[in-house]
Amino acid sequence: MIAVVTGSSLTVRALRTQLDLILLFANEHVLPRIDETVLHREPSSNCVGVRRADGSFVADWPDETASPLPETTIAWLLWHIEWWWSNTLAVCRGGSAVGPDAYEWSGTVSRIRTLAHEWSELLETVDPEAPIVGLMPDETPLWEIAGWVNFELTKNISEIGQLLMRYGNARP
């Protein structure tokens, strides 16, 4: 018997396959290499990071009109992934997004794995054509949001990988 795969099933399958590849790369080659020696290391004097303030982590927010744009610490990139992915999950579940200044970072890579699991579950249970309001300027179908998640996660994990390579190849 040949299984019939609908367009929605193919869409979710393609998005899940992309996500699985991104997570495989992240979990095998990037996230395990992050430790305290690289987490808050500043790659230059023009960078944004995450700092402790009143017992919680506070992220710098870059001036996006500056030239050149500031570099980021690995901590900032992990905070950024958590912030946008937590917002994406919240909005897709009918909640609201929070601003960058209101998001408290976990301080670990384990939260990324939890968010990935929650996102995978959401992709399996929500219609990919479901309209999502509150993340993009206009109402956007879930499949398009999921494509953006895959792109943004790939970009952020690659940026972390580049910083790890840079630090690993730095001369003493």
What would you note in describing this structure?
This protein is mainly α and 172 residues long. The chain has one domain: Four Helix Bundle (Hemerythrin (Met), subunit A) (Up-down Bundle). Helix content is 52%, strand content 9%. The protein contains five helices and six strands, in the order H-H-E-E-E-E-H-H-E-E-H. The strands form three sheets. A two-stranded parallel ribbon has the order 1-4. Strands 2-3 form a two-stranded antiparallel ribbon. Strands 5-6 form a two-stranded antiparallel ribbon. Strand 5 (131-132) and strand 6 (140-141) form a beta hairpin. Helix 1 runs parallel beside helix 5 (142-168) and helix 3 runs antiparallel to helix 5. It starts with 6 loop residues before the first helix and ends with a helix.
Record the SSE blueprint.
Elements: H1 7-30, H2 36-39, E1 47-48, E2 50-53, E3 56-59, E4 71-72, H3 74-92, H4 110-125, E5 131-132, E6 140-141, H5 142-168
Parallel strand pairs: 1-4
Antiparallel strand pairs: 2-3, 5-6
> What is the residue-mean pLDDT, rounded to a whole number?
91
> For the record, what CATH class applies?
Mainly Alpha
Rounded radius of gyration (Å): 18 Å
Percent of residues in helices: 40-55%
Shape: globular
Total domain units: 1
Strand order of the largest sheet: 1-4
Number of helices: 5
Distance from N terminus to C terminus (CA atoms, Å) equals 62 Å
Main sheet, how many strands, which sense, barrel? 2 strands, parallel
Low-confidence stretches are 1-6
Q: Return the CATH topology.
A: Four Helix Bundle (Hemerythrin (Met), subunit A)
Q: Helices and strands: which structural class?
A: mainly alpha
Q: What sequence of helices (H) and strands (E) makes up the elements? A: HHEEEEHHEEH
Question: What portion of residues belong to β-strands?
Answer: 5-15%
CATH architecture: Up-down Bundle
Q: What is the number of E strands?
A: 6
